[in-house]
Amino acid sequence: MSTRSIVSLACTILLTAASLAQAPLASPAATADVSLNGKAVTIHYNSPRLKGRAIGSSIVPWGEVWRTGANPATTLVTKANLKIGTLHVPAGTYTIYTLPGANQWLLIVNKQTGQWGTEYHQEQDLGRTPMTSKPVSASQENMSISFENTRGADTELHVRWGKTDEYVKVAAE
Question: In total, how many domains does the chain have?
Answer without folding.
Answer: 1
